[in-house]
């Protein structure tokens, strides 16, 4: 394992208008590791992912991917260089068919046929529905389609935002099995979750954000033990 | 029966050309959310360019077609997308309308500059003279070619959008351009391709139609209305529905032309065929479902400072005195221009209310002014009663335009005014109801109890008084409850709605008010000129008015006053220097494209000068020459919090000035 | 009879079902909580109740009258007020003008003849943001803007107040004061329905809680009942093998619930 982390953010600040959301975020994802980023609503987790993936410009601070300084790079360029981001909500195109969604995944630099093969091998259900509009599938199936991108695009770093949002526990279970499978293949993953337990199960390390800063990092067990206090602010 | 078949063939031909134009419009709108009002004007310019290549320079037809459709038009499309309309998809609809109207006017400028009006031009049809007899109906090769090409275009677009990755990416970027970029797709490449193809299709439609309807600057430009009407059937997104809409429209127009003579009273309806697209459009608009209120985020807009009522009155009094002094030394011909400038300044005030405060755009303010002028002249009441009648009549017409689009968003409202302006131009103003063709109306000079204004100078002063009164009313509206409500609605429609505001009727009221002011301006102009004709109220003038407003600012009375002067001066300059008439349009368009993104315009810059002097210049001078006694502000106390915010400092502090002024009322 | 009855409401966007046969009632004069994991459909429910979203099926009944098809502004006249999760303050206006414009809209024509200045000040005082009265609303902190939206909504004198995550952006002591304010509003006879993630606040002030998950109501009851309801815990925990974690979380179910 290389000593250069696959992702390192240094003192990231970001704001929506005049309201500062990130106030100096330092975070590292070691190569090959799964890091869980936890924290209450409004802590700035999703904003941090937007900055890392190139969707939003930070006001100051740097992002390094694999030791390369990528501040100011465009989202599409990062995506072609091996950064796969699955954003919050259903990250599929509802008015395209399953197969058309998969076709677009080939922009990440993998041939369309390879995308189809990987996706249908992992999720046979997608093959059954390949001519169906993605928006007419169930939430779980749509999230499978989103995960197919993570599997098929062979990323160097995978960013997952609130994968479990609004999904039944059984389906979340299934999705996290595929996350574990991706991790086994050596892909580095940063996963943002509201369900601390779910994310901690697959994580090697965990970090906690509140108020736009990382306030704690450590092994999943340590973080799991303090999560309740973080979210409740010490009250019980 | 054979007549019916002939009309059908003509209708299918027109419909096919509309379909080609409309599918280009849909392609660009649905991938970038920028509605290109200049779509027809782009087609017009390329029809001229094709004429230039194939007729003037004598290039072979195939080479001319290749150069125009595959080289120049796509490059122009990419230029428009990359440089002129970049990022407008997320801008307020008013801004993107000003920019695309500027492109329209700029295109007219290009055409009139390069291909001057003095020579007659015509494009031959393809295989001219070869007529084909098809079961008793005579068909031209041009018609067959156009219909065949429209089928090919439809097929090619289907293949592009459904069978290729980049086409799939186009449809994806409609849903969510940001997500597409996370997939690694380049939204800007997709947008550029859409505009390249869309612009080529506009050019193709222009080239196919020009031999039939003639190489005309304005007729080809107004092709956009037909294209837009067809595209509305597919809600500006569905290509198959657009195709059906275009064919239906083409057929309807052809049958109207064909069977009009059988209708009693057809001699008064000579303009009807030209407005079939408009009628078609209104019919579809009325049938569209309610648009949901958008929930966005907190967004404030920085506006020009609003003066107090007292200050407005003082400034107004000074202005009237200045006008009186100037008028006393002017020749009558100069006074006529001066009066027109004041009338146009009042018309600009109608845009300050509607666009500057309300955030809605109208592309037909001159049509409302024309309604006021006609009512004033026809009523033959050259007194305050006649004036009030003109105002109320124009206001009623404004409300009638706004009501069909009650349930829709700002874009549709603006496009409804576009269609309305064209309808007034072609059907009403030229009919015996109003001016009649080439037949000016006479109006009488306004008189007030105990006063007459036969003298041109006195009437000019009276117009200045009306300008000042209207300006005070507009400022009072802005400072009062209604103004606060308008600003609130502009910031968040959803919040205003949940507080109990009926947005639909507010919009109708705003439109009526704005149209009423426009009516006043028209009536005053009629009273000044004594004879008045339709050309003054041409539809195109409304677009120029919007651009001048975009340059000088639609948020302040000062911008309106300066803008009114320019509105008068532009045609004067063009007739004095006919060889650069088109260039002036291009300059205006360029100015509007650069400045149109900030609704406060150039006049706002002037408001910043005193601030610059006290905040930056004085302290700098005071540093350098410590002995000078300057009125520098105590920078350490007042200036600092603003400075600390950094690049936003200017906007922030300016905004505060505005709201402080309101709060201290 | 309950003040508000959400009756078997379904909302579909494309093929996604955001609200799935949700039914619940809100008693007059109560403070009712609507809780659930992110994406459960809470804000969509609010949009349906206020008329910003037309439901695919189902009915909204206010005070015995079916208002499902009523336009947004008329619901306000019938006494529904709301705040927004993603702020909708009028950014170009000052804080006090935000409230004044609400009074203007609510009063309509008769309001032309009375001065509203005192009412504005009183409302800003009530929610505790008088210090910001002359700031532009797009330059104030999130928590303050939420309180401003509350003051603005109160200007229309609503009988039913819908609050969408009102306490996010407030610090601990501000949240405490906010809880007291809610109780005061309820004591005055207003009905409050709120979506909220701060469980201390919800458990502290609510009379009744409805739990929404996948667009359906999966539980309702008093805070004490909700706290120990296993179905609710499961919804909030996502999947997790109870055996794995029980040892580490003896501290209590409430903490687990807050996750």
Give me some keywords for this one.
heterotrimer; B: 665 residues; mainly alpha; 3 domains; two-stranded antiparallel ribbon; 72% helix; 2% strand; globular; disordered C terminus; C: 259 residues; alpha/beta; six-stranded mixed β-sheet; four-stranded antiparallel β-sheet; 11 helices
Anisotropy-based shape of chain C: globular
- Major beta sheet, strand line-up of chain A: 6-7-8-3-9-10
Say how many strands of chain C there are: 10
Biggest beta sheet attributes of chain A? 6 strands, mixed
Largest sheet of chain C: 6 strands, mixed
Mean pLDDT metric of chain C: 84
Number of self-contained structural domains of chain A: 2
Can you count the beta strands of chain A? 10
**Secondary structure: helix percent of chain A:** 25-40%
CATH classification class of the largest domain in chain A: Alpha Beta
Distance between the termini of chain C: 35 Å
Strand fraction of chain C equals 15-25%
Strand percent estimate of chain A: 25-35%
N-to-C series of helices and strands of chain A: EEEHEEHEHHHHEHEHEEH
Radius of gyration of chain C: 19 Å
How would you write the strand order of the largest sheet of chain C? 6-7-8-3-9-10
Q: Globular, elongated, flat, extended or rod-shaped: what is the shape of chain A? A: globular
Looking at how many chains there are and whether they match, the oligomeric state comes to: heterotrimer
Biggest interface, CB < 8 A = B-C, 36 and 48 residues
Number of helices of chain A: 9
Radius of gyration of chain A: 17 Å
